[in-house]
Every structure is written in structure tokens, then in C-alpha cells.
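#random but structural
TW: two for the price of one
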Amino acid sequence: MQELAKGFDLLADPRSQTITFQSLKSNGPMIGLPQMTDCELHRMISEGDSYGRGELDLHDFCVLMVRTSPVLMRMAKVMLHWPEDETNLTNIYYNM
């Protein structure tokens, strides 16, 4: 989660502390995101925007990243099903 928060900080508008269309368009290429059309950027914002404000707060961003990343989604499932006996953790991870 700390890595997601760092990514959020790199993309967020420093004044609003949210990821806006403009901050994503300006900061995305600086951190290595591929060039995207305005439509793609707007779609990305609206896909994660849980409040309908046209911007992502840290919570929205983290939820969006977990939903769209198979590795993060699998890790989240593992954390939700964390066994008391950690010897089976690998089996749980690969069988989800």
C-alpha cells in the first residue's frame, strides 16, 4: 500500500491532493505511463471515481489499482484469506 501511495503522490495535483485529468495528463508521462488520448485519461478517472467528482482521491486510486492489476488482486485475496497456519500460504496464493 505504501508503494501505491507513492504512485498516487507522483500523479496527484499538489493543490487538491487528488488525481485530476490535468495532473494525470501532465505527470503520467514523467513516471513512464504510456501516451494516452484525452478520452482514455477521462475514462481512467471516471472508472475509479467513486464520488462522481471527476478526480481520484487516495482511496479511489488504491481501489482502482487493485481492481485493474491481477497481481494486486491476487495479493488482496490472499490477505483476506490469510491462514492461521502460514505453511499453506503458497498454495492459497497460487490456487486463487
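TW: number two ↓
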Amino acid sequence: MSKEHGTLKVTIVEGRHLKDEDIVGKNDAYVEVYLDKDYKQRTKTIRNSNNPKWDEKFTFNLKRDHDDLHLHVYDDDTVGKDSIGSAKIDLRKHDFTKGAYDEWVKLPALLGLRSKGEIHVIIEHHT
């Protein structure tokens, strides 16, 4: 993928079993998605759900050094935002000539012992 350009169409479909360790109860979750930190896009906030359905599409222009798609899930709090978890998808590991990337991506806990939930992501590459 590193030499190709084109566009990446990313669909953040839904989340399941999202956990914020600090909060008892449900999350007000949203996802930040980006290839580099200078251009982040985000979903809308879904209130009171640990299994939110976003079904939102984002388009990114691919540059030569864009090898990873970053996902960061937050709980939207009245005083700011709490991180629920994050993950990165190595775009070089998927063969987009065989079709879209369509996976549940785990949000690993810091020590890797428990998952903080999963995000269903679909990625299409267009040259």
C-alpha cells in the first residue's frame, strides 16, 4: 500500500461491549479516525450505549507514508473526554485487490488482559 495513492473510504459501523473503566453504566461514545494526527475525523456521539451504531462514512486521501489507520474511541463527558480505547489497522497487511477490509477491531486493554470492546470497521481502497 505504501507506494499507492488514491482514497480510503472508511465506514465506522458500530461498537460492541465498550468499557470505560472509570464509569459505571453506559458510555456516550464516539470514534476519532485518522491516518495522521493533522487530519482527524470523528463520528457523532451515541448517548447511553455500550453497543453504539454509528454507520458513518469517511474519506481520506492516501499519501505515500500512510500505512496505519488509527481508531480512538472516547466517552464524551461533561468535563471533557475519557479514552475508552484505541487500535490501529496496518493497511499493508490487507490485500485490497481482493475486496474491502471488513473486521471487528479489538480495543486492547493496556496490559492486553482484557478487551475494552470492539469496533466494526469497513475500509475500501480506491485508486
